[in-house]
Amino acid sequence: MIVARTGNEAMAEAMRQINPDVVAAYPITPATEVVQLFSSFVHDGLVDTEFVPAESEHSAISACAGAAAAGARVMTSTASQGLALMHEILFIAAGLRAPIVICLVNRSLSSPINIHCDHSDTLASRDAGWIQIYAENAQEAYDTTIQAVKIAEEALLPALVTTDAFIISHGMERVELVDDKAVPKFLGERKVKHSLLDVDNPVTLGPLDLQDYFFEHKRSEIDAMNHVLPTIEKVQKEYGDKFGRYYSTVEEYKLDDADVAILAMGSTAGTAKVAVERLREQGKKVGLIRSRVYRPFPQTAMLKAMTKVKVVGIMDRADTLSTLGGHLYTECRSILYDADNRPLLKNYIYGLGGRDISIEEIEAMYDELLTIQKSGQVDKNIVYYGVRGE
Amino acid sequence: MALLEIRWHGRGGQGAKTAALLFGDAAVETGKYIQAFPEYGPERMGAPVFAFNRISNEPILQHCGIKNPQIVVVLDPTLMETVDVTEGLPDDGVVLVNTQKTAADIKKQLKLTTQAVYVVDASKISKDILKRDLPNTPMLGALIKVSKLLDFKAMLESVKHRLEHKFPTRPEVVEGNIKAIKRAYEEVMA
Amino acid sequence: MKKKKKGWKELPIGLVTEPASSLEFETGDWRSEKPIWDEKKCTHCLICWIYCPDSAIIVKDGKVQGIDYRYCKGCGICAEECPPKIKAITMVREEK
């Protein structure tokens, strides 16, 4: 069915079709609508979900962790400060191997206070042991929410699916929904090895784990993350085969014959595609790399994509405040260390606090990358793009 | 159809965002690709607000703001005194204004030369039919007429559907809005 | 006696452990003093059984049977709580 939906509405529709066992949530701009709409589905009897309106995000994710560890299919939604307040429990959920899915809207972390898009919130949670997938548009947000449930449950790791604040969360687009009945069929029942509700086979969850065993348990969690990418690829393919929309962990756009490329995440990648089209009309060989999956870092696919070109401009919608540049930039530099044919890199930190990024600005970036290609020189590795006073 | 971009000017509470969403919804039902999004700032009743639409026959990839809309819709004529409603408007752009004045007067007021101006007294239509000054839905009817983008009947069906969903117990609101859209569609002029 | 600890691949996923695994953890060698139970004096009031923090008082059909020295840490609470007029439990030094 083809409908007009905002990103938040699309994610809420996906949640309705998934019909999770438990949703525990606390509202926050710009993700409020997701659970607000979902609570109306609960009220209208469209889902069988146990809905827990919690008194804070910390409580909401704690309830989610408990329910997921008990064997339930669990979802919630939050943004920015809400995710920050969940931070402590994010690690616990991952350690408990609780496959919770969060529909997350990327919003700047305070301070200063701001409700608009950048990626500082989820990137600050990159080491929590959660799978992170960044949607480019409302359609992808919808599709990925459904996929994430399957990915998380197969990997036994929690997952974040994100959209850009307001740009996607509140922007209405054409979205194609899957048939209501097809979603539970695609997902199946959650298979649980240890359920807290199985009184005949009791287990202990979350005990104290000291010097003698903590490292082994953490190692096992790290190993799980090391094996998620094939699971994501498998689920993406199954979804594509069933519903016709295919995704990849790293999207390559007009890259094969490109001299230079931009690497971006989220909605900006779409804007960059238009810039690519316009520049290609002028005969400029430019391409785009989009990191759809950020955790685990898709290093093989990323390396393959980046080494196709001579120069990569890496667009980060957050800064690590480490003097090293943005998150994608530092990690891409790291994976290129051992590579042959290393491209030159330039880091563009852009769009903080929702600062708009236009097609023309991205075109100018490409022109700069083409100049770098000619000269073989990057005079400034990290630049702050679109900020006054530079 | 090439990509078309629209900017809505209103005041907080006049329904600029709702109009953009209704327009986007109707366009999807007639098979188009669309975007509809407001510009979110501090939301206060009466403060100038913006909302936007993109419409195309092809998938729309860009997610940047709209700087050069081909069509500008002004929900409140007093905005023209404080907001540059024609900012970024191309030479062949279109301005549609809710006003009691003539198109020629508005053209003069906005110092336009090449652009086309259309006017309709949407506030009067709304007050007559809905007993309130809610110019957004009548302006939708006028926009359909001026832009020639969508099938009018299909659009009416779509708006009716969405309003019925929003006001399930108030059929008079739905009917009133439909009537207002039809009248604005008839009365809008160059 | 030290048991060989498991490697990470052998562990159940997600900090899940078998229930009642404390049964495998015998704390009897923590004692420096040992409770001695006198069957003749005991009235089977079960106060020692209530207080014992390690469930080391063996009870069958409502009657004390003895002390489970596999788990008893020798804390002496049973001897302390046994009513003064009964004194069926006394602590003796473990050292031989």
Account of the protein in words:
The complex is a heterotrimer of chains A (390), B (190) and C (96). Chain A has helices spanning 7-18, 32-43, 57-70, 80-95, 120-123, 138-155, 182-187, 214-226, 228-243, 268-281, 299-306, 327-336, 359-375; strands at residues 2-6, 22-25, 50-53, 74-79, 101-106, 131-134, 159-164, 172-176, 204-205, 250-253, 260-264, 286-291, 293-295, 311-316, 344-350, 382-385. Chain A is of the alpha/beta class. By secondary structure, chain B is α/β, with parallel strands linked by helices. Chain B has one domain: Pyruvate-ferredoxin oxidoreductase, PFOR, domain III (Pyruvate-ferredoxin Oxidoreductase, domain 3, 3-Layer(aba) Sandwich). Chain B has seven helices and six strands; from the N terminus they run E-H-E-E-E-H-E-H-E-H-H-H-H. Chain B has helices at 16-29, 79-82, 103-109, 122-130, 136-147, 152-166, 171-187; strands spanning 4-11, 33-39, 48-56, 71-74, 94-98, 116-120. In chain B, helix 1 (16-29) packs across helix 5 and helix 5 crosses helix 7 (171-187). Chain B is globular and about 45 Å long. Chain C is 10% helix and 22% strand. Chain C has a domain at 28-93: Alpha-Beta Plaits (2-Layer Sandwich), CATH 3.30.70. Chain C is of the alpha+beta class and 96 residues long. Chain C has helices at 47-51, 77-81; strands spanning 16-17, 33-37, 57-60, 63-67, 89-93. Chain C is elongated. The model of chain C has no long low-confidence stretch (mean pLDDT 92). Chain C contains two helices and five strands, in the order ββαββαβ. In chain C, the strands form two sheets. Chain C has a two-stranded antiparallel sheet. Chain C has a two-stranded antiparallel sheet with strand order 3-4. The A-C interface holds A 69, 95-98, 156, 193-194, 202-207, 209, 212-213, 215-217, 219-220, 223-224 and C 5-9, 11-19, 21. Strand 8 of chain A pairs antiparallel with strand 2 (33-39) of chain B.
User: Which residue ranges of chain C are poorly predicted, with pLDDT under 50 across at least 5 consecutive positions?
Assistant: none
- The quaternary state of the protein chains shown equals heterotrimer
- Which second-level CATH architecture of the largest domain in chain A applies? 3-Layer(aba) Sandwich
**What structural class do you assign from the helix and strand content of chain A?**
alpha/beta
Largest sheet geometry of chain C: 2 strands, antiparallel
Average per-residue pLDDT of chain A, rounded, comes to 97
Helix/strand structural class of chain C: alpha+beta
Assign an overall shape of chain C.
elongated
- How much of the sequence lies in strands of chain C comes to 15-25%
Order of helices and strands of chain C: EEHEEHE
| Number of helices, counting only DSSP H or I runs of 4 residues or more of chain C | 2
- Rounded to the nearest angstrom, the distance between the terminal CA atoms of chain A is 48 Å
By DSSP (H or I, 4+ residues per run), the number of helices of chain A equals 13
- Write out the strand line-up for the largest beta sheet of chain A, numbering strands in chain order: 3-2-4-5-7-6-13
* Cα radius of gyration of chain C in angstroms: 17 Å
Largest interface: A-B, 25 and 22 residues
Per DSSP E runs of 2 or more residues, the count of β-strands of chain C stands at: 5
User: Mean pLDDT of chain C, as a whole number?
Assistant: 92
Basic shape of chain A: globular
Query: Could you say how many structural domains of chain A there are in total?
Result: 2
